[in-house]
UniProtKB/TrEMBL annotation, chain A:
This is Uncharacterized protein. One of its GO terms (molecular function) is calcium ion binding. It comes from Flavobacterium beibuense F44-8. Keywords: Membrane, Transmembrane, Transmembrane helix. SUPFAM superfamilies: Annexin. The keyword Transmembrane helix applies. The chain crosses the membrane at residues 40-58.
Automatic annotation (TrEMBL), chain B:
Gene3D superfamilies: Annexin. Keywords: Membrane, Transmembrane, Transmembrane helix. The chain crosses the membrane at residues 7-26. This is Annexin. GO terms for molecular function: calcium ion binding; calcium-dependent phospholipid binding. It comes from the Bacteria. InterPro entries: Annexin_sf.
Amino acid sequence: MAVKENTQQKGLSNPAALALASSPAGQQAIGGAIDTTLKVAKITAIVAVLSIGGYIAYRMYKNRFVSMATNSKYPKSNITKDQAKAKAEALYQAMHGWGANLDTVLETLAGLNYNGYVEVFNAFGKRSPAIGSDMTLTEWLNNQFTSSYDRTQINFILPGIL
Amino acid sequence: MDAKTKKIIIATTGVIAAGTILYFVLRKKTDNSGGECDPTGNGQNCIQVNPSVVADSLYNAMKESGTDEEAILLALKNVNAIMFDQVIKKFGKQSYNKYLGNQINLTPWNPLPLEPLPVWLKSELTTSEYNKLKLKYPQLT
């Protein structure tokens, strides 16, 4: 095997490795290694993107809004869908921001039957508070009104909800 | 059968299957769980409440000086507007010292006036508390 003269080489090198690298078989091996590295890099990138995307999709699915079902055993909702929307807005306005206005909440909830509450719950959907993740209407009520007296008042106006 | 017919059959089955799945996923959900009675009590007089027991609890919450508002709301929790009339009846009229909010009679030669439940409630509760009761019981003025 002819060894290429490398007069530029400074210091000691491994003549055997150099000999191997500069041979045609050696060159092919090096090219193959680069190919494989690229392939591996490509596969890693695809897996990373898919797993991140999959995780995001999973989180979105877990946090999706699940509507309440109307209960056919009880009387139909005593408010219309438009009234439910208006009530949902009023409740959100009363609760978000600094301090929660219990009186407004009680007035808005007064007189609703179970299926009426379901309509308001569905119209409310999931809304975001200042801090924390999106919550449904029942979660908002539980979150904003924690004192036992507040909860007694809500349970008085609308028993069976909280 | 030839390839074309096979394809058509598979396609039709696929469409029917997809349609059925979509129907079940997208239809309005109804729920049949829970008890027999609408728990809110609004518009339906289903939950059984003993009006005498309620009237007693209210009397006990109010008879001394000071009022236990929480006890009043707890006693009235499952009492809807229709049942409230029964509670008023069972409460009847009880002697009441409006000025002291209790039943101490400072003028023993003169018996205390007998007042019905709405008068007791209006006198014992703050305006905002009383307004909360009015939200649920239209018969209160």
